[in-house]
Structure formats: C-alpha cells, structure tokens
Amino acid sequence: MSFSVTEASGRTKWIAGILVVGYALITIAPLVWIIATGFKSGPDSIAYPPKVVFEPSLEGYVNLFTDRTRATEDMLEEAGPPETWYDQIARDQGTIITGPSRYGERFLNSVIIGFGSTALCMLLGTAAAYAFSRFRVPLKDDLMFFILSTRMMPPIAVAIPIFLMFRQLGLNDTHLGMILLYTAVNLSLSVWLLKGFIDEIPVEYEEAALIDGYTRFQAFYKVVLPQAATGIASTAIFCLIFAWNEYAFAVLLTSGTAQTAPPFIPTIIGTSGKDWPAVAAGATLFLVPVMVFTILLRKHLLRGITFGAVRK
Amino acid sequence: MTDTPIDKAAQATPEPLARRIRGLSDRSIAWIFVAPTIFLLLAVNIFPLIWTIRLSFTDYRVNRPNREVEWVGLRNYERILTDPDVWATMQATAHFLIWTIVLQVLIGFALAYLINKKFRGNDLWTTIIVFPMMLSPAVVGNFWTFLYQPQIGLFNYVIAFFTGADPASFSMIGDVHLAPWAIVIADTWMWTPFVMLICLAGLRSIPDSIYEAAECDRASKWRQFWTITVPMVLPFLMLAVLFRGIENFKMFDLVVQLTGGGPGNTTTLTSIDLKREAFEKWRTGYSSAYAVILFVTVFGLASIYVKALNKVKER
Amino acid sequence: MKTKHLMSAAVSALIAGGAATSATAEDLTLCWAAWDPANALVELSKDFEAQSGHTMNFEFVPWTSFADRMLNELNSGGQLCDLMIGDSQWIGGGAENGHYVKLNDFFDANNIDMADFIPATVTGYAEWPKNTPNYYALPAFGDVVGWTYRKDWFERPEIAAEFKEKYGRDLGVPATLEELKDIAQFFQGREIDGTTVYGAAIYTERGSEGITMGVTNALYNYGFLYENPEKPYDLEGFVNSEGAVAGLEFYKELYDTATPPGSSNWYMGENIDAYRSGQVALQMNFAFIWPGVEADPNVGGGKSGYFPNPAGPAGQFAQLGGQGISVVAYSDKQDAALEYIKWFAQPEIQARWWELGGYSALRAVVEDPGFAASQPYAQTFLDSMAIVKDFWAEPAYADLLLPMQERIHNYVIAGEGTAQEALDGLVRDWTEVFEDEGKL
C-alpha cells in the first residue's frame, strides 16, 4: 500500500474503530432491550436489578394479541382445561382470554394508510417532479419553496383546522382522510427528492425518444420512469417510513376505526398496570420492518433525510 | 413490451382526441403534472392556514357548538404574548433546542470524523448507529419511560453501576432538574446519527488534494483540521442544524410520550402546550392565534438562518 | 336537528312496540376505559349478545388518554362509539353540547327508575344540571377513592410493637389523615423481608387527571370547597381557604416524606404495580382495584385490608370516581344501544356485574343483606360511597381540570411556590374560565 496523507494510519483506524463501535453498542442497547423485554415474563421485566439473562417467555406476545380478564374460580371451572398453548400462557397469569386484542387491526391500519399514502404520494410526486425538472413552469422556484415550506409547520398547529375540515367532510377517523393527509405531508419530500433524481437523468435520452416519434407521455413513461426506478423506490420507502412513524396527526385525528399503531402501542396495558412485555412485543413487531428498510436504504439515506439537499 | 397502457389508450381513442393527447404541448403537460400536487397542498395546507388566521381573531370553541362566535380582534394574540406560562414553554423549548443541537453537533461530528478514518467494517457500524433515527419517536419515547424508571430501569441501573449511586435515588422523569435533560438525552440518542450522516457527506466532499497541498506546506494536523476540515464541513453542519432546529421546534411525539410535559411544567414544550389548549381545553380561537405565532416564529428564524447559511456557502 | 328526530323516533318506536328486540342485528361499539372492570364487562355482555342477536365491540382506552381521546371523538361528532361509559365529569358537556341522548323518556317507557340507584351515583353520573331530574346516563360503575393496606405487615408483632412505642397507639386502620401520614412515614424506608419498602403510593400523575383525583381527598377533608355554597361560582375564600391550604400542604408533606422515590407521575396503574410488587404499605386508589388485589397471588387472599379515606379537621369525604353509560347522539344505532342499557339495568344482570368485579350502583344489589359480607372490601365500598364528592362536572370541566393539574403538580411535585400561591393562582385560573363561559 502506497503512502497517502489522507489515509489514516493503522493505529488511528483502530482507535477510531473502537470508539465508533463503542458508541454503536451504546446506541443499540435500548433497541436490544426492547426486543429482549418482549420475550420476558411480567415479573422478569420489572425485576431489580434488571435481568440480562432470563428465561424466554411468549407471555408478551400472547398478551399483545389477546384481551384477557382476571378469572374467578367458577370461571376457570366453567372454561375447562386450556385448549391451546397460548391459552395455557394466559392461565398461568391467572387470566382467561376473552378475545383477540386490537393490535392486529391497528397494525393493519398502519399498513393500509402507510402504503395507500405512499402510492398516492408517488403518483402525484413523480408527475410534479418530472414537470419541475423538465419544463419551464412559471414561478417554479416559488412553487418549489412553497412545497418545502409546508413541511415546516408544527403538526399540532396544522391539526386544528384539519380537524375542523375533516369534521365537516366526515373524514375524521377514516382511512381516506389519513391517506390524503399523509400524502400531503409527504409530497414535499417526494417532489424534492424525485426532482433531484430526475435531474440526474440526462435529457438526451428523452430527446432521442421524442425524435423517434414518442409522445411526451411515452417518453416520460418508457424512458424516464425506468431510469428513475431506484430513486422512486427509495423515495417511496422514505414516505412509507414517515407515514408509518407519524404520531401527532394520528393521535389527534383518529380514535378507533383508522387509528394506526404509534398512538396505540403506548396505550397497551395489562389486566392491571402496564404490561411492559406486551408493549415491547408490540414495539418490536412495529420497529423491525423499519430497521430492515433502513438497511435496504442505506445508500440513499442521506439524500432522503435532507430532502435531496445533500447527495453523496 | 410494445403495448404500454398509454399506447393502448392512444390506440383506443378516436383519432382527433389521440392527436390531441399526442399533441399536448409541454406546457399543458407541465400543468397537468403539477396541478394535482399544488391542489392537494392548497387544500390541506394553505386553505387550513387561512382558516386558522381567521379563527385566531375569534373566541370560537369546538366543544361549544351552541355558543355564538364573537370577533375579538387581537385579544388572543395579546393574551398569548403577555402570558408568562407561554413564555415559560418557549424557554423550555429553547433549552431543549439549544442543548440537543449542541450535543448532536459535537457527537455527530466526532462520529463522522472517526468513521471517515475508514476502518474496516465502518459501513456496517454506520448503519447500526443510524437505526434510532428511523424509528417511530412515539413508540421509542414510550419505551424510554421504561428505561428511565428508578430502580428497575436500564438507564438508572447503568448510571448507578458506573457512579455507585443508588438506582432508586434519582428519577430522570420525575425530578424537576433532571427531566429537561431526560428529553435532551433521548432526543440526542435518536437524532445524533442524522447530524453524523450529513457531516460524513461533508467530510467526504473534501478533495484529498487540499490536504496534500497543506501537507506540502507543512501545516500541522491540528492546523489542517481547523483551516480545512472545519470550514469545508461547516455548510453541511449548518444545514444539519437547520433541519434539527425546525424539527425540534415542532417536537411533540417523543417528549409527550416521555414526560407528558411534566413534572409541573418543566418539559412543557410549545407544541405540547398548544396541544393542551387546542385539543384538551378546546380553545380553538385562542390556539389558532398560538399556531399563527408559531408559524411566524419558525419561518422568521428559518429564513434568517438560511440567509446566513447562503453567506457561508458563498465564502 | 336531525339526530334529535332520530332519537325521538327511536324512543317512540320503543314505546309503541314495547318490545326490546329490533328487526336487524347491529354491530354495537361500546367505549370505555381500559381497566379490569372493562374486561369483566366484556364477559358480562356475552349474555346480551346471546339474547339480542346484536354483536358487541369494545373500544377501551387507558385512563391517562381516555378523556383526551373520547372527548376528541365526541367533539368531532364521530361515530366510533354507540355507547359511551364516559367519566362522571363529562356529563355537563355531554348534555349541553348534545353528545349524549337524553334518557328520561326511555327510562319512563321501560320502568327504569333512578330512585333504584345509589343517590350519589345518580347525581354524580346521570344528572345534568345536577339535582334536577334530567338524565343523560344510567349509573354503570360506582367508584370512589379509598385506601388499601398491607394487613399482613400491620399484624406483624415486631412492627406493631415498634409502632406503638413510637406513636403511643396501636397500628391499625387510621382514623384521620394525620394518622395515615404517621403510618406512611413509619413504613418509609423500612426493611421488610430484606427489601426496602415505602409508605404510600398516592396519585401524582401530571398529564390527565391523576394528581387532582388524589389531592382532593386531602383538600375536601381540610375544608376546601369548590364554591360558595350560597353563591355559585364565588371562589375566593373557598378554593383558597385556610383549610384548603392546610390540606394541600398535607398532601405535599405526604408526598415528600412517605412515598416511593420516583413516584412523581403515578396514577392508578403505577400505584397498583407498586403495591402488588410489595414496594408500599399503603396505596390510594379507586375501589375498582380491590377485586384484583384480593385475587393477587402476592398481596391477595387476606393479606390486604381496605378503608375509606380517613377524616380530616373539616370532615370526611372521598373523591368520587365511576361512570354512567350513555347513548352517543351521533350513533345511527341508537335503538340497539338503548336495548343494551335496558338489558344492563336489570337486577339480575346487575347482581352478576358485582360478582364479576363490577361495582353495581343498583340499590337492590348493594342493599342486599348478604352484600357487605360478600367480599372483604364490600363494606368499605359502601362506607366510601356515602361520603363522596366530585370535581366540577361543568361543560368547561377540562378547562377547570388542566389548571388544577398544573398548579397542584407545580407545587406538590416540582416544589414551586407555596400552597397559598398555588390555590390563589387556581382561583384566578378558574375565575377566568367562568368569565369566559359567561357564568361570572
């Protein structure tokens, strides 16, 4: 290896590596703790000192997906012996399962609203980004800034009139309302990001296509879209993650029918007191998909989080 | 792949119409492409904003449908700006904003600097460090309350382990002096990677040739750091600060889950206070004025800052 | 108003038909807080589903976000809930803003008589304006703040002897709040079975209503009044009377000297956890927890005792909890919802409700000769229900609650200012609310 002034020495690398790895371990400790707590039993989860080694239990997951009631003697008799393994886990806690919990529904709401708003956002965003990238749109800079500025407003402040408007239109606590809202919030991100991606595609490709007799639509559809596919995919994932994580609007504008998981997970409680293993189980199932997406996205992360302002 | 849906549409349409679609001028296409986005943003952002401004001059309350609404002029604004409680929330927000930014810039820059040493496996560790910022702040914030529990919480236990204090002797969320730091710590944990990523991009944008030239001039490493690295990364860093500043000015989810604004009012950030006024007390007119004041503050501060940022970039 | 027409149509249909079964099977949603009694209600409601053919869905929200979410739902005119077991303080807003259906005609048509229910629950949960025969709910769940204590610890000879030596009286159920404080301080920091235990778990929660529901138990008994009994909304000298100040100082002293470290944001759930895990000798909590305590493997089965909120210098009162069940005016399944209330009001259903752990408010149930002995806490429940007082139930209740939470938490937990300043501030806040409301 030839000497270079910018290449760090071996020792420096070691020290840098140790420090970074040390930080990384500290930073993932809370996440590991969430995942671990999901597999603890109730008493283990609140043990003092905190238990690092414990006997794994599915109590948290069973509690997450079921509603239970504290069983009286005659109820236990009436119910007979437990029929399934999860019945058994509930019985071990002195409870009887009364039905499925709402977690599944809320998770599904997150999926519907997340994917619905992302799809709509990509449809509108790609078109707008293409137009901003390729055509002379009057007041282009102002419009672009306007689009960006919509993201600066505190969600609580925006929620006041949205609440009134949705109430008038009957959109409160509906999937459609939340999809439209998240689409609007995410449009700024998708337009800005996609414009950057489309800007990078040489105009010559389209010009060639136009000369070959393609219409503008066809050139957009057949030439630009495939070229921008990676950009569109990573933008879509960013939109999805935002919609997935959003809390403020969800807590204010939904109550049951369209409630997503983030406002729901903190409210998971047991038959008495907070059921931390169940909360942790719910959080784990909710967070792990995002971690997977983060790994997929790592090449485009920077661009996504800065609205395309910084590109690698 | 010869038949795309658009081809089919074009074939299926009668000749004049097809010609018209084909012949659409770029200008009309531009409008067709941009209009839905602008329309949706107008409907979901601008229209509500105008409505908010209008409401801010009234005493309207959502939970009193049967009461007559009166115009109160600037009274809402006057009440807010002269209310010491509102200023207290601004102070809490400022404390939160300043300290999160300071810590995140310091740690984020340091991490980026270290990662830029390109040790083996740095990509993997970078990805791991990035995890917290991609996760739902509400869900994670909720779990931090668990980590902060006296005695049984991991955070207290670790601190106690290293300092020898009794893990039950302090409560990060319950203590008036510690709670403002509890939210700073959680936010720093979550968002340091954001600053780190941007700094890393800044560091990687510096061409090697500049360092090589400095090396020829026999500039010390220390000097190189202050005269090359820092100025070159500064615009990036300032951009990161802008984003974090706006985001943390809006901060709601993480803190509301962590402390709910307590104890007392010590961590009641402006957004949390606004939420109480708007959606618990339902003082709609009053909170609309509050919201307008926040808009103006964010836009005002952000535009001053962007001007400064542009100056730095020009240098 | 459309809903009103719908409503009267529903009522007249019920009167005309006399039958409770409607033609179609509906999907009803009942909204309540997520807690033990709600699980019991699910169990109880299976009988209704079998009888009526309707399906019951439940939307349960934890207490700390219950008011937020449900009032938001009502104010947005949402149709999520057909039946609402709303908190007692919402009744004014529910009635005046048209969220709840007025039930007088329905009660008359179905021979449901409010005189059959515990009077305090009728006033507390069903009437608006208070003390007038206008009903917007049927008392569903009687609840009141009371105390739970570790009888097994109290009975240990060495502990009892040490207490007697120190205080010159026997360790037992306290007769006054002062005595309660002594006991809590006595246990604070004590080693029992190798672990450090603390005195009492009390309500200190900031975000919703916690600390208010706790501190009032001290305030009332030291002489706090919500208003001049002679002149409504006259607060000065009643909210911040000398007695009220003493009561608030008492609560702070209790918090400072006799509660577990870190208990700065505790409400029902945290108190239960602390008590069940053996951290505290006493806990303040609503009566709903008692069936759970009795059944608990650690502290149940006779290890725990129960007593009503002890007296103070100005009398003996306890904070009212509990809820009535109402029909939501925005529901389009109101007749099926009314059917549910009719079913729920039946004496045999109410008796079963008590058996499952629900505190029935029906006099036939609680006045049954066997009631007091049916559970170790039954007598305490009856005694407590006899001394209840409730927070404001005005439509502006949330506006009144929020400043109280803030002022009290600031003083008791954050230690800012004095008790006098806190209550003087509260008078100012409340006066402003009543001025805004046009009541002053």
UniProtKB/TrEMBL annotation, chain A:
One of its GO terms (cellular component) is plasma membrane. InterPro entries: BP-dep_ABC_trans_perm, MetI-like, MetI-like_sf. This is Carbohydrate ABC transporter membrane protein 2, CUT1 family. It comes from the Bacteria. PROSITE patterns: ABC_TM1. It holds the Pfam family BPD_transp_1. Residues 107-297 form the ABC transmembrane type-1 domain. It is found in: Cell membrane. Keywords: Cell membrane, Membrane, Transmembrane, Transmembrane helix, Transport. GO terms for biological process: transmembrane transport. It is a multi-pass membrane protein. The lineage of its organism: Bacteria, Pseudomonadati, Pseudomonadota, Alphaproteobacteria, Rhodobacterales. The chain crosses the membrane at residues 12-36, 107-131, 143-166, 178-198, 219-244, 276-297.
UniProtKB/TrEMBL annotation, chain B:
The chain crosses the membrane at residues 29-51, 96-115, 127-147, 178-203, 224-246, 288-306. CDD domains: TM_PBP2. Residues 90-305 form the ABC transmembrane type-1 domain. The keyword Membrane applies. Pfam families: BPD_transp_1. PROSITE patterns: ABC_TM1. The keyword Membrane applies. It is found in: Cell membrane. GO terms for cellular component: plasma membrane. GO terms for biological process: transmembrane transport. Its main location: membrane. It is a multi-pass membrane protein. Belongs to the binding-protein-dependent transport system permease family. This is Carbohydrate ABC transporter membrane protein 1, CUT1 family.
TrEMBL record, chain C:
Transmembrane segments: none annotated. Residues 1-25 form the signal peptide. One of its GO terms (cellular component) is periplasmic space. Pfam families: SBP_bac_1. The keyword Isomerase does not apply. Keywords: Signal, Transport. It comes from the Bacteria. Gene3D superfamilies: Periplasmic binding protein-like II. Coiled coil: none annotated. It is found in: Periplasm. Belongs to the bacterial solute-binding protein 1 family. This is Carbohydrate ABC transporter substrate-binding protein, CUT1 family.
